[in-house]
Amino acid sequence: MGPHPAVAAIRLAVRRVLHDILTEHTGTRDASPGVPPHERPPSPLVLVACSGGADSMALASALAFEAPKLALRAGGITVDHGLQPGSDLRAEEVVLRLRELGLDPVESTAVTVGREGGPEAAARDARYAALDAAAERHGAAAVLLGHTRDDQAETVLLGLARGSGVRSLSGMAAVSGAGGRYRRPFLELDRQTARKACMVQSLPVWDDPHNADPAYTRSRLRHEGLPALEKALGKGVVEALARTAQLSRDDADALDAWARQAEAAVRDSAGLLECAKLYALPPAVRRRILRRAAIEAGAPAGSLFARHIEEVDRLITGWRGQGAINLPGKVVAQRQGGRLVIRQG
Ligand SMILES: Nc1ncnc2c1ncn2[C@@H]1O[C@H](COP(=O)(O)OP(=O)(O)OP(=O)(O)O)[C@@H](O)[C@H]1O
């Protein structure tokens, strides 16, 4: 008898990603057939980022099962955010569970969570910095994250509510980070399947109280927003939102590529942006060029909002002699003699 369908599903999702990692790794490596086995470089290491929650425990179990079959090494990292009393003990427990699965190396790493951008963003920044450092330290080929289709749906809704365009609707990428380090094998899998896979494998899971805390936007969305949407629109909402993410990502990538090409054509011989040529472009392409120009001039990407770009855009499309526009990072945009000048003032 084969494994339970939920276990089969999580393993298949992980196997696919491991295949990709292996292909990329061996594709760039000299096979060195003449080198004796003990002198060959060790096989690639894949780490799982595990909170001890159902999604990442399921991921860890599937990695532990699939990696040896492909002669890959598999390890695990858990990050102790230090946000609750006893979080260090819990992290040690996760370490034990990962070791029990047969993962090696396994470690817990403690971080200090700052305040910038709110509690969720600060914890995320600290977590990714720790995961990056762990990946570097161990020379890992990839780090697996347990985001599911449900997480993706929530991310799309959060982007929609921000009102900042098709890029923010594109959710999380299956591959991201430096050199494509982060992989999300469960992006097309629902949270219930991951939880079920843990249950049937008798894997203990830890439910983060933050996930149920209504003080957090994502938690409210998970427990109130999405259920209300499902009630109003039907059960397929999560799937449809995840599909929206993929379609939006493709659209956003295409528009970014178009903007990169168009940019060269709208600059004069001195490299300044020509307003008449910008005017002739579709708004989606033009706004991308303006955004890139502002970032290049020193505006921090995270503080540059749609309303800033719209204001700069009005120098092109609604010109009535208005003055300079102040942007984050002390960047100033102004129109001078048919040219748009964006620089740090
Ligand atoms: N403390 C942590 N240590 C290591 N990895 C983490 C930690 N917290 C989150 N992650 C990684 O980020 C992914 C997404 O985490 P997030 O908290 O957004 O989702 P989740 O649905 O609560 O996931 P899980 O059920 O695995 O905790 C996790 O699946 C895991 O891979």
TrEMBL record:
Family stated for the protein in its record: Belongs to the tRNA(Ile)-lysidine synthase family.
Domain of life: Bacteria
HAMAP family reported in the protein's UniProt record: tRNA_Ile_lys_synt
SUPFAM superfamilies xrefs: Adenine nucleotide alpha hydrolases-like, MesJ substrate recognition domain-like
Record remark: domains: The N-terminal region contains the highly conserved SGGXDS motif, predicted to be a P-loop motif involved in ATP binding.
Location of the tRNA(Ile)-lysidine/2-thiocytidine synthase N-terminal domain: 46-224
Biological processes per GO annotation: tRNA modification
Principal location listed in the UniProt entry: cytoplasm
TM region(s), chain numbering: none
Residue sites binding ATP per the record: 51-56
Compartment(s): Cytoplasm
Record-linked Pfam families: ATP_bind_3, TilS
Keywords, sorted A to Z: ATP-binding, Cytoplasm, Ligase, Nucleotide-binding, tRNA processing
Domain tRNA(Ile)-lysidine synthase substrate-binding: 273-340
Family matches, as Gene3D superfamilies: 1.20.59.20, HUPs (3.40.50.620)
InterPro entries in alphabetical order: Rossmann-like_a/b/a_fold (IPR014729), TilS/TtcA_N (IPR011063), tRNA_Ile_lys_synt (IPR012094), tRNA_Ile_lys_synt_N (IPR012795), tRNA_Ile_lys_synt_subst-bd (IPR015262)
EC number(s) reported in the record: 6.3.4.19
Gene Ontology MF, one: ATP binding
The name this protein goes by in its record: tRNA(Ile)-lysidine synthase
Catalytic reactions on record: cytidine(34) in tRNA(Ile2) + L-lysine + ATP = lysidine(34) in tRNA(Ile2) + AMP + diphosphate + H(+)
Gene expressing this chain: tilS
